């Protein structure tokens, strides 16, 4: 398929012409190309940096058909690159589908018995096994490993760390030796110093961040994926935890201050990336909602969109709109930075050079 697109190419401000041939972007004209649009805003394919393809909505393992449907939903929302932050199933069969987003896998969650969602993760009876299991998952993943940093400890009635600091350091060092980065699920405050001090590369959620741990993140260059649409489920989680009133109150407090927490992290210079935590309690295809939530937490519209597109692609080592790069593009009828509502309804979604969403073409540039 040969295509021609003209529009404002973000993150720039200039109207430019792009061509697509053999699934790749060309900055040079391509003969006999179909003009897909002669106006609009062209954005590098969106990124959901925390997305669980393989976890069924409502809980449990998804089958192949369901995983494909999840990936299709993400694609149609414009999310063409997914960092799958833990999945109970092997989704490599999706790599064989040119019509589905690229997935960067982190293997399976690594947790302790009764300290995470049942049947989703690898559960270790002895924490001393963590370094070996992390190394194994690093070899099976796509450059990432996911550990569970904290979860409710029912004997204590509140969030508690799962691992000792010394074991965390050994485990993260083991992943780094395999060439993988490590990220961690973490809600509360107590697990953060150990994770950061052990050399973690990224934190998921991070609702318990304080000025002190934010400063630590900045010094160590650690990224944050706050998953704000997921954090909005905290009041519901608290309502279901009537047996654990301290935990319930803690979750409500984390939710109450999360926008201020994210704003403080952003102001301090912590790199932020957009992730929805789709799968389980969050439906797929909600990257537009996460971009809006990041904007509400203090990022500029340009920063929030970049956190779900060009900045996230650079962080994950994937190209944006570059000559000879894969033609993964999203086209909008209006500037998504000034008219964010259009993020939910892209005019065109182009994945590997093929058009998968085709709404009314844009014909005039404003």
3D structure, described in words:
Helices cover 30% and strands 22% of the residues. It has 12 helices and 19 strands. Strands 1, 2, 3, 4, 5, 17, 18 and 19 form an 8-stranded mixed sheet that branches. Strands 11-14-15-16 form a 4-stranded parallel sheet. Helix 5 (211-220) links the parallel strand 15 and strand 16. It is globular and about 65 Å long. Mean pLDDT is 96; it is low at 362-366.
Brief write-up:
With 366 residues, the chain is an alpha/beta fold.
Rounded average pLDDT: 96
Gap between N and C termini: 28 Å
DSSP summary, beta strand count: 19
Tally of alpha and pi helices: 12
Helix share of residues?
Answer: 25-40%
Report the structural category: alpha/beta
Poorly predicted runs are 362-366
Strand content: 15-25%
Query: How is the quaternary structure best described?
Result: single chain
Tell me the radius of gyration.
21 Å
